[in-house]
Amino acid sequence: ATRDRARRLAEESGVRIDDVRIIETTHDPAANAVFAGFGVGPKYMFVTDRLLDEFSDDEVTAVMAHEIAHRKKHHILLKLATVVVVMVAASLLLALLALVLHGRAAGLALAITLPVLLFGAILLANGLVGIRLERQADDYACSIAGPDATRRMLEKLAELNMLKRRTGWLWNALHQHPGIQQRLDRVAARTTPEAAGRR
Q: Which pTM value belongs to this model?
């Protein structure tokens, strides 16, 4: 039934899924799902058994729609593109600094600090992009399963996985996700009469 539902949702979304794999969570009882696969290779959706045990049908649909959105909207490709852009920008900056600064001390300082700065820039850029992509995936889940099912799904994820409800922007960027409360507030806004009128 889980495979049929995932394949049906994927087909309706124009996304291919080769199979759905259930992960047994004996030692780490997390409720989670993930879409795996890139390019022309095989595509899988992984779903934990605890998620299937604890979530209602429409909540599972919201989870699956969220994961399918990552594939449908090419989120993996966008994250890879972010890394490439940051690395190209850093390389250009390095070349510019090499022209401006001369001497061994300056070169040594660059060699030491640039990898650290590059790593930090990639983390921050990927985090900020990731937050935006998670919002898109939540929006897609709302459009497929409805805002109420998506809200309940997020509430259960927070409860079962003991997630922090309110988090700051740096925490969110490092985890590449908006905070749960921010996600809930955003989904709740879709159920207001004003939001309904805009859709």
A: 0.85
DSSP 39-74: TTS--EEEEEHHHHHHS-HHHHHHHHHHHHHHHHTT
Nearest to 154, CA basis, from 25, 66, 45, 34: 66
Arithmetic mean of pLDDT, 4-18:
93
The Cβ of residue 70 has, within 10 Å, a number of other Cβ atoms equal to 21
What do you get for the CA distance between the two ends of the chain, in Å? 31
pLDDT-above-90 percentage for the chain? 67
Beta strand spans in 49-156 (E): none
At residue 195, what are phi and psi to the nearest 5 degrees?
Answer: -65, -40
Residue 187 pLDDT: 95
Classify 198 as helix, strand or coil: helix
Long-range contacts of 190-198, Cβ-Cβ distance < 8 Å, separation of 24 or more:
190/139, 190/142, 190/147, 191/147, 191/148, 191/151
Which range has highest mean pLDDT (13-27, 100-114, 125-139, 177-191)?
125-139
Residue 37 makes CB contacts below 8 A (sequence gap 6+) with: 18, 43, 44, 71
Q: Rounded distance, CA 27 to CA 110, Å?
A: 45
The identity of residue 15, as a single letter, is: V
CB-based contacts of 35, cutoff 8 Å, min separation 6? 43, 44, 45, 46, 67, 68, 70, 71
Give the single-character DSSP code of 14.
T
